[in-house]
Amino acid sequence: MSSFKRLGLLFVCVGLLTACTLTVDQALLPAAPAAAETPAPSVDSAQPSQDGIAIELNDADGNPVVVDDLSRIITLGGTVTEIVFALGSGDNVVAVDSSSSYPAQVGDLPQVGYQRRLSAEGVLALDPSLILATTEAGPSEAVQHFRDAGVDVLLLESDDSVEGVAEKIRGFAKALGREAEGESLVVQLEADLAQARAYVQSAESQPRVLFIYARGAGAVSVAGQNTGAQTMTQLAGGENAIEGFEGYRPLTAEAALAAAPDVILMFTSGLQSLGGQDGLLELPGIAQTPAAQHGRIVAMDGLYLLNFGPRMGQAVLDLAKQIREEQ
């Protein structure tokens, strides 16, 4: 996008940035939390030459995208932000959405609100040359507004499968002119996942895992089928203890007792919102579960557990170990 066009946008888009009204935990579910300390794979941060080079590709919606200016990137979504920084293009990022909190330097950047509730004016006021996101970004009217304003917008498929994560890394790497770095990240991801699979195959147990998402005692739900929590549980060699529905539903005593989990899995922040394990045991039916009776409560950083980015393999291995450790 030309500097003249971007200058014009500054005068047109004078709206303030959308307030960050959602926590990172909310951004993760039911579809991101304080960043985990586990370091992400990274590559050399030296910028590739882009002088006179236009990178052409299609996004998840089949829209042709020509990327020719990497000077001012806005990333939408914790996964997208983590990938871009891991590829070595973090110095070009001028703003992120509220679900982005890793790596640590992201905390110094302006936020443009939640990726699914974007304000076109707030985003455009930052004069982006390129917006990187997944198909979770919206509303669609805002995304179209970005394109109509002449900003390059690349939306890649939001796919939490192993293959989907690899494709996201490759897609954003291509857009940034960092395909070699992208392949290095994919190779590391596959190595981490292979290590996790080897651990799972050597383990004798397949624990039944109940994932509970909490934002205080008045907002507690459990993960059913076709959720990110189930994906991670299965990759870690566990079994989702909830079978009767898809997505997330409020926790009931009946559901907890019927699930009979060996392990209860939560975000660290979610467990804290209940007042710790004592507060968790006060929820309907929880104290009567095998997990509670044997002290099998596992809490992990939310963005690390369910971000589905370069650290996915590390998170799978950590989860596989924690759901089998005696407490």
What features would you describe in this structure?
Residues 72-327 form the Fe/B12 periplasmic-binding domain. By secondary structure, the protein is α/β, with parallel strands linked by helices. It folds into two domains: 3-189, 3-Layer(aba) Sandwich (Rossmann fold); 208-295, Rossmann fold, CATH 3.40.50.1980. 38% of the residues lie in helices and 15% in strands. Strands 7, 8, 9, 10, 11 and 12 form a six-stranded mixed beta sheet that branches. The chain has a four-stranded parallel beta sheet with strand order 4-3-5-6, sandwiched between helices. The protein has a two-stranded antiparallel ribbon with strand order 1-2. It is globular, with a radius of gyration of 21 Å.
CATH hierarchy, class of the largest domain: Alpha Beta
Indicate the proportion of strand residues.
15-25%
What is the helical fraction, as a range of percent?
Answer: 25-40%
- The ordered string of helix (H) and strand (E) elements is HHEEEHEHEHEHHEEHEEHEHHHEHH
